[in-house]
Design a protein that fits this description.
alpha/beta, single chain, nine-stranded mixed beta sheet, about 450 residues
């Protein structure tokens, strides 16, 4: 019998290898899940109700993570935790992984600086689709209602600490403030000229590189100095200068010639600096208390997927700034049906679909035995020598899924689980046995 040429065998070999890889991955994923279904001692002595926790004295920033962006329970938890911090710890700021300008629009509304007849429409102006939900409408309505019953000095504030974009609201608000100055105000025309340029880094035909940074950074710094010397109100001055600071950061963040991993950590470093900036404003008024909400991958003080030696996550940067004045709460699930931005390598059209995941986290598995199938666990309360303590202080499976699902995510465990030393990443975690999908307004 004549042998087939090797070239004819290659497709069959590749298909067989792919099938074996998929089957092997499936077995590996399922084996981890099965091995996690066990009773773990040391939880009962330390666990409490989902929001039945006490902050250590002196904590001025609480970072609350979400294991996924697409689960309803984690959005509901934001309001639950924020209410507790407001009522029991005199916190004043709800911070979100969201563009500064989009969040400032919400803040202007809840503080009575602008009218908005449709709160749902206001929420849909937030830059991230994951926040276009009834859960965020409830957060905004709670803050608006609260502010209507307190003096301005005690109002709650909505703050976006991300730095991924300049919005129309940034530019329109800034231009309107400058145009509102007297026509003979010093440098008014120059401020208007430079302010019209701060959205340039967001334009498709604008190239962010060393040359554009050298050209525009001095101009943006000049605008900051002119705003600082202007007759704007202290609040409007600070907000406007911060918008310009974000524009300066974007001249680097959108430089695609730079290493993408370095830019990821550049973003986290800037987010932490933005929180410190807002905290300084609060402190100047004799107030403290910021809740920062973001993905677990940002708030964790160690990066479970660190790709750059010495680089720090958002939470790691906050830890350097605040030390023991920061308290980091992660979230975790055992089973998740996650509503996530779903695309293939062939089409990047925006769609959302539900996908099921299991974290294979044995600590999260214990939540099935607690009220509401969830519990709060402060790691400092877990008894040393217990099985729970050993799991929390060693690399262990935890769920992690961002805003983006591609087909191979279902076959590659590392795309929806990560090995993490939980006790190094968080001060505490709120565990759920099951979590369900968010429902976004503007996506079928």
């Amino acid at each position: 019998m004549k042998k087939k040429p090797i070239s004819q065998l290659i497709p069959a070999v590749l298909i067989a290898a792919t099938l074996l890889s998929v089957i092997g991955s499936g077995i590996y994923i399922k084996a981890a899940e099965l091995s996690s279904r066990k009773k773990v001692d040391g939880i009962a002595e330390a666990a409490s109700g989902r929001c039945d926790f006490a902050l250590p004295e002196g904590v001025r920033v609480v970072a609350l993570g979400e294991a996924t962006h697409g689960n309803k329970e984690f959005q509901e938890l934001k309001l639950e935790v924020f209410r507790k911090l407001v009522n029991e710890y005199d916190y004043h700021v709800f911070g979100l992984e969201e563009n500064f300008g989009s969040a400032l629009r919400v803040d202007d509304y809840i503080c009575g600086r602008r009218e908005e007849p449709d709160v749902r429409a206001l929420v849909m102006e937030l830059g991230c689709y994951i926040y276009h939900t009834e859960d965020f409408v409830r957060i905004v309505e709670y803050m608006k209602q609260y502010n209507e019953s307190v003096p301005e000095s005690e109002m709650l504030h909505f703050f976006g600490f991300d730095m991924q974009g300049i919005t129309d609201y940034d530019t329109e608000r800034l231009m309107a403030l400058i145009e509102g100055l007297p026509e003979d105000a010093p440098d008014r025309a120059e401020m208007l000229s430079i302010a019209s340029e701060i959205a340039l880094p967001m334009q498709e035909d604008f190239v962010c590189n060393a040359d554009s940074r050298a050209q525009y950074t001095p101009r943006f710094e000049e605008l900051k100095a002119l705003l600082a010397a202007s007759d704007l109100s202290p609040f409007d001055r600070e907000m406007s200068i911060h918008s310009v600071d974000i524009a300066i950061g974007l001249l680097t963040y959108y430089d695609y010639d730079l290493d993408s991993t370095e830019l990821f950590y550049f973003r986290d470093r800037n987010m932490a600096a933005n929180v410190k900036w807002y905290d300084d404003l609060l402190s100047a008024e004799g107030r403290t208390g910021i809740l920062c909400t973001a993905h677990n991958g940002h708030v964790a003080s160690i990066d479970a997927r660190a790709e750059l030696e010495g680089a720090l996550s958002f939470g790691g940067n906050l830890r350097q700034i605040y030390a023991d004045d920061l308290y980091i709460i992660g979230t975790e699930y055992y089973h998740s049906v996650d509503n996530v931005n779903d695309h293939s390598h062939f089409s990047h059209a925006y769609t959302r679909r539900d996908h099921a995941f299991c974290s294979a986290d044995p600590i999260a598995y214990q939540a099935k035995d607690y009220a509401d199938a969830s519990f709060f666990l402060d790691f400092s309360e877990v008894p040393e020598g217990s099985e729970a303590y050993a799991i929390l202080h060693a690399p262990n499976d935890m769920g992690i899924m961002g805003e983006g699902f591609v087909p191979e995510d279902g076959f590659c465990m590392d795309n929806f689980r990560t090995k993490m030393v939980a006790a190094d990443a968080y001060d505490a975690v709120i565990y759920y046995f099951e979590v369900g999908p968010i429902r976004v307004f503007d996506v079928e």
